[in-house]
Amino acid sequence: MQFQISEELIKQVKHLIQTESDDNLRSMLNEIHFADVAEILGELSLSKATYLIKLLDSEKTSEALMELEEDFRERILENLSAKEIAEELEEMDSDDAADIVAELPDDRAEEVIAKIEDEKRAEDIKELLSYGEDTAGGLMAKELVKVKETWTVAGCVREMRQQAEKVTRVHSIYVVDKEGKLKGRLSLKDLLTAPAKAHISDVYIRKVDYVDVDTEGEEVARIMQKYDLEAIPVTDRDGILVGRVTIDDIVDFIKDEAEKDYQLAAGISQDVEADDSVWQLTRARLPWLILGLFGGLGSVFIMEGYEEALAQYKELFFFTPLIAAMAGNVGVQSSAIIVQGLANDVVKGSLFNRLIKEISLSLISGVTLGILVIIFGLLDGMELIFSFTIAVSMLFVIIVAALIGTFVPIILDKKGIDPAIATGPFITTSNDIFGIFLFFSIAKLILGF
Amino acid sequence: MQFQISEELIKQVKHLIQTESDDNLRSMLNEIHFADVAEILGELSLSKATYLIKLLDSEKTSEALMELEEDFRERILENLSAKEIAEELEEMDSDDAADIVAELPDDRAEEVIAKIEDEKRAEDIKELLSYGEDTAGGLMAKELVKVKETWTVAGCVREMRQQAEKVTRVHSIYVVDKEGKLKGRLSLKDLLTAPAKAHISDVYIRKVDYVDVDTEGEEVARIMQKYDLEAIPVTDRDGILVGRVTIDDIVDFIKDEAEKDYQLAAGISQDVEADDSVWQLTRARLPWLILGLFGGLGSVFIMEGYEEALAQYKELFFFTPLIAAMAGNVGVQSSAIIVQGLANDVVKGSLFNRLIKEISLSLISGVTLGILVIIFGLLDGMELIFSFTIAVSMLFVIIVAALIGTFVPIILDKKGIDPAIATGPFITTSNDIFGIFLFFSIAKLILGF
């Protein structure tokens, strides 16, 4: 049933813009959901997209603007006057408006805020900009429905009708005292079913989950998920109700966090997308490659140190990429599980038990892989003592790699550093060097070169 | 403000269970949110947790059960009678109840369903079980508020009060025709503000997003995110309204999908957690390690083929872990960006442009890294022609690795295979072999051995 943006439709829009058929464009696009308008804008050139934004009602375009890629939006905004941007902002929810202003250069941001006619709105935006980006204050919107505990249900319904006009979705009605301190909440359902003459103080729910403006975004997401909340009120440091965070912002937040972790694990250090410029992508990727290069050069050094074994045991050197790959793979597996476990708070029990578990795990995998190496050695015509040496060294490398993969994230986490940094290239690189060093040390011990 | 589960509290609960102080336990735990009760249960032994589940009201425990780890929940359910499970199910939302039944062994599931007193509820559960797990039908709940388009607003409010009792949260009121076909929706806000005598047909919104029971979960998530929906109605194949999917289920779905992708990228093939058994973890990890082992053995073969170069150019062999690491890292970076781009639908433009982009990217990175290798060579006392050879070969390896990392996921996606499989060990292993082969081929060409 979903609306599908066809190439046909895009062509038609482009044609209508070229012929400046404004009425046709308006009647055509006003029927369409803003998220679809955003998709259409994304398919147009900058000048055509700007043309459409200027043409259509701010009511529609303001929401569509929010859905666009940040880069594209910025370039469109560069083509709008401060007044035009201010008009878009007046139609947005306050949290979205603040996000847009935050993307503008400082002097332009001031100019835009000065052009906002609704003073309350301008103040709200300034307030929201004063909080940290990843805090409840930075995520919240100012729009909400609040009532005083002394009111009657009938008075409350009257007041609510008025306030609700400005609020896209009413999840809960918040109850405050004379000073504006958060006291509890009331569902619309409760309001519908309560007698009209009852006082709010008789019907409202006194238990209400809330966060304060300084609560970290991650913590807000955790609480909202744990308690299955669709909105959570936000108070200032004195308990005064100042805003609310809604679940759709949290959905975006969760997605962003997951994508960042995924990219970190793949060795990409900034939030980039497939369609970003070559320069942006290089900046995000090159540092990790340089780290990997130094790791590889470390291995070169180690092997130079064992050069004297080359004549008799050249096959050892053929196995180094295999050893490095095993150390890397095992390390990434262990660290990924621990990093995820730490994020979901399921890493329990003593460190000693975890040690035993990782060692058992690596023993099972290492012995299995070792047997396969010995079978390969027999088929390849290697001496048994030689393939045995490789299997045993590999077993030790796997155990140590698993321990590094497990305990580096745990230690980082205990020190308050994001353990997600310790997956991907970081763990593969350190395990590569360490694995190759261990491999040659053990081989030397057994073969005695 | 959040409730914090202290060790003190857990101790106290354990003590109260041991002394069978049922009244104290009830009065203490009835005050606590079900999500916190779930956390307490998770800290108890199986027998103590079962004791609490049997003691407390089903109203509280049914929701707490849903929050527990699946394994622990299964073991608790094994200790409950079919009748006791049926009682828990009667208190749950239908989608949660169906999920629980799906976890039970077949014969026990039938037994439990037979013990459910509410026949409508039993039927709902059976219906939900008939849909695929990852479809709208499998995600939806049967609870919703629906009204007929011929009713008046006043009649609708009356009916709604009755229906809403069974529905935890009312997002929208759905409007259906005589046959039950979905016609549109109405917000509670609209209902509050419409005149009592108006007919629903005069006030409802005819545009409503919906999915049908067979729509894939991923598509449901995409639509709900794109259009910022908090609930979406689900129809059967004839357009009859049969349920609704709410955003909290989608949040869980998004998180699960992100975790699966993350694990796939790390070479973990099943949904495992840090606290799963050694055996479960081995089953999820070992297959990827075996794949890596075969890749490593492939490199051994390739190097055996270049054995004659060993005497003169032994340093080439010292560089193989570095080449393998570069090929792997670049491949993982490229594939991660493409896999994420495909998931977010931002991979646009022609394949040729993408080719040019990846090649430019790898040229920049490859030349930078090559210069570093030459500098290292100078410091390490290598011949210039030799370090130059390594730098040039590495440049080619990086370009090819980036192309493999980019186009393998794109091809898989075009063929309808989940491109997420093509990150991590898969791309590192294939790039290892390919990189080492290419490295020696180019070195041979330049050095002529």
Task: Summarize the topology.
Two copies of one chain form a homodimer.
Chain A (H helix, E strand, L loop, with lengths): L6 H12 L3 H8 L4 H10 L2 H10 L2 H10 L2 H9 L3 H10 L2 H10 L2 H10 L3 H11 L6 H4 L5 E4 L4 H12 L8 E4 L5 E5 L1 H6 L6 H4 L7 E2 L4 H10 L4 E5 L5 E6 H19 L12 H28 L8 H5 L1 H24 L7 H30 L3 H31 L10 H23 L2
Parallel strand pairs in A: 1-2, 4-5
Antiparallel strand pairs in A: 2-3, 5-6
Helix pairs in contact in A: 3-5, 4-6, 5-7, 7-9, 8-10, 15-16, 17-22, 19-21, 19-22, 20-21, 21-22
Pfam families (chains A, B): CBS, MgtE, MgtE_N
GO molecular function (chains A, B): magnesium ion transmembrane transporter activity; metal ion binding
Family (chains A, B): Belongs to the SLC41A transporter family.
Stretches of chain A where pLDDT is under 50 for at least 5 consecutive residues are none
CATH fold description of the largest domain in chain A: Tetracycline Repressor, domain 2
CATH class of the largest domain in chain A: Mainly Alpha
Cα Rg of chain A: 30 Å
Instruction: Identify the most extensive interface between protein chains.
Output: A-B, 112 and 112 residues
- Major sheet of chain A: size, sense and barrel closure? 3 strands, mixed
Rounded average pLDDT of chain A: 87
Which structural class best describes the helix and strand composition of chain A?
Answer: mainly alpha
- How many individual domains of chain A? 3
Q: Give the overall shape of chain A, derived from the CA principal axes.
A: elongated
CATH superfamily of the largest domain in chain A, by name, is SLC41 divalent cation transporters, integral membrane domain
Order of helices and strands of chain A: HHHHHHHHHHHEHEEHHEHEEHHHHHHH
